[in-house]
Design a protein that fits this description.
Strand order of the largest sheet: 1-2-3-4-9-10
Distance between the termini: 36 Å
Strand content: 15-25%
Helix content: 25-40%
Order of helices and strands: HEHEHEHEEEHEEEHEHH
Structural class: alpha/beta
Number of helices: 8
Number of strands: 10
Radius of gyration: 18 Å
Length: 266
């Protein structure tokens, strides 16, 4: 608690992150939902936290067969989590921060196929978009993915980061069906999730120079490679990294390179 207060005294926000690779969490019943709201709310209040980061992995969110309506999902684990987050937001007010750090399959993967884990975060993101502070999809530990231009892009490249980010801002068709579309998010709601170094993720590490090329492409339209965004996004939220501990262990290679760059943007 003292550590949290010390960071907050510096003007930093401290969130509790829910999930991760080894925490399989599903709210499959109303009772589980209510218990989650009560216990998580009490933890947040006790520690004086500023918000919640949803980082569910490992199949914790998977759409049931036939659950294809983005506006009205039917999978209990999805429906109950949406309800639970709304309850926490109501308890702690408008300043309560909500972030999400999903894997690519659960978000951009919904372009190629919508069902199961593919696009499973999209109903959560869509139905909570008015409450969402930042979405920072993990552009690491992932395979190649198709962009809205129909081309396949490889992690760790300028094109991958630009294509995957542009998709979230312009919107895209679920499973390629133009009748079912995920509307784009606000620019200030989207950040790029990156590994801090070569040791912190199995794949997706991108050199600082290429990360900054991708951000410059998105924010000003210059420095692009093959993929060019439909417009520029000067209000892009920024960068997320896994993790600050790995970054320190690697000599602050991530924050040392990117903090001055981000500060220099208009």
């Amino acid at each position: 608690m003292a550590g949290i207060r010390a960071q907050q005294a510096k003007g930093k926000k401290v969130l509790i992150s829910l999930g991760g690779a080894n925490a399989h969490i599903q709210l499959n019943t109303a009772a589980a939902r209510d218990n989650f709201v009560r216990t998580m709310g009490d933890i947040i209040a006790r520690y004086g936290l500023n918000g919640l980061d949803i980082d569910l992995e490992g199949g914790s969110l998977a759409l049931n067969p036939g659950d294809t309506d983005l506006n009205n999902p039917t999978t209990p684990a999805v429906v109950n989590l949406i309800s639970a987050v709304r309850s926490l937001k109501a308890r702690f007010g408008s300043n309560f921060i909500l972030t999400m750090a999903p894997e690519t399959a659960y978000v951009q993967g919904g372009l190629s196929s919508y069902g199961g884990i593919w696009g499973a975060y999209l109903p959560l993101i869509h139905n909570l978009r008015s409450d969402l502070t930042t979405l920072h999809v993990q552009h690491y530990n992932t395979g190649s993915l198709v962009g809205t231009d129909g081309r396949t892009y490889t992690p760790g490249t300028v094109d991958f980061h630009v294509a995957m980010t542009d998709m979230l801002l312009t919107g895209f068709n679920l499973g390629g069906n133009p009748a079912k579309r995920f509307p784009g998010l606000r620019t200030d709601q989207v950040a790029i999730g990156l590994p801090s170094g070569t040791r912190s993720a199995g794949s997706g590490y991108t050199t600082p120079a290429d990360v900054q090329r991708a951000v410059t492409c998105l924010t000003s339209g210059t420095g692009c490679n093959t993929y060019r965004p439909g417009t520029t996004y000067p209000a892009l939220r920024g960068l997320m990294t896994w993790s600050i501990n790995w970054d320190r262990a690697d000599g602050l290679n991530f924050s040392g390179a990117h903090r001055p760059f981000l500060n220099s943007l208009p």
